Amino acid sequence: MQNMDNPSLADIQALCLLIIHEWGNRNAVRAYIYLGQAARMSQMYRIITSHQSRDPDQFIKDESFRRTLWLIYILDCFLTSSPGRHPAVSHHDIKDVPLPCPDMSFNFGTPTFVRTLTGTSPPGLPQGTPLSDVGEFGHIVMATQAWRNVVEMLTTVTVDTYSEDQCLSLEAGIESVRSSLPMHFLDKPGHINLHITMGSGYTYAMLHCLLHCATIMVHRRRLLHFIQTENFKQDTWHMSPHLHAQTVDRVFAASHTVVSLLQALETNHDKDSVPNFPLVMLFSCFTACATVAWFSLKGLTPVDINETAEAIVADGMRFLSDGANTWVLAIPWYRHLSVMAKVLQNGDREGGRAATEPAPPSVKEDTASQPDNSVEGMGYARHSSANAAETAEHNGVEAPRKSGFTTINGGSAGSSTPVTATASPPPAHKPESPILSSSDRNPQLDSAAGEVPADMTGAELCAAFERQLLDLDDLAAFMGGGV
To answer: Which residues contact 167 (CB under 8 A, 6 or more apart)?
Structure first.
């Protein structure tokens, strides 16, 4: 707090790291507040430094600030992905800021001029000076904007206000980003391995994870609207020709690519350690795998690719399990996917039963005190019935719990949505558990996993998942829940 009157670039960058740390630990309120603080500090830093004398290294200093500002913009796009969270970075703050230049120019201090996010020339461009290409980080900024535009649609559109033209416009925006990429950043087979060799594997993977995640969310919303409004019947889905079959193919291809990118990074990683994927890449993996599982359970995909769907989901569960050892935020994503995976493994898309998958070992316990620190995964329960109670009594087990299911971010579906929900009281504080060996399980995960009923059918799971998508529960889980 001592540098509040004269914030330095190092102070702002340190605050960005703190934002990511709190976000990854499901302290959503803290992360959001720190984000606003970082945005204000960057504004004051720009005002203060504009009155200082220029020096020979000014380009490096200016570019360092621009990259920090764009990092704040990216975090702002991610942490305001739910109604009620207002952006900390306005359009006015970034409209005249050039996108990050190529890393080579930045590393060697070669002054370059790059266009803005809106495509215009930056202020102060000398007449006749050509614009340089957008840098690697700049493409991630553009992909983030396309991703955020999709989220904006998801958080504002209802079943009644859904517009196919809006989805087409968002698709065009995503393709515009793809078409603007240089040849070496195009999404082609084998490119990820070349980038890994050159040291830019994570940059390439994160860029395309963002674009594929945005593509999946647009097409998934289109199919969800079709299912909700067109009296969907599985029996007639494959018999009748329709445009949505192509939509399923695109989502399946995008999901497969996301998992393949993470597999390539994992394969080329140090064998003695587990790769630490950024949160956005893990969420893209979760979105891809959950959507593939939903398609398969819903009967939207041909039967002959169900085995491929199971393999994609299994790979996604492995990545989320490993990620949960680093990011508490990934724990509910893993639990959600484990339920869907169990139904897929049962093979009965209409009447399969879901049991819990073993919790990932050595996942650290979340003991924060914020209202957004609940790490309960997505459990499901069938509606209570007399037959269910009799069956349970006959088998000598406890009767099914009352109607309802737990949402991805720990809330109770049917009682509130991210639009109307208020923060729930924090759970009782648990003492920190000792470090567990790889053969032990986290007690907190085991206790929550035991609450998931073992009699969930595929049809019930699909209905619960569709309700969650309409309630924006996946976006609430992405930010950490709580607000």
So the answer is: 153, 218, 221, 222
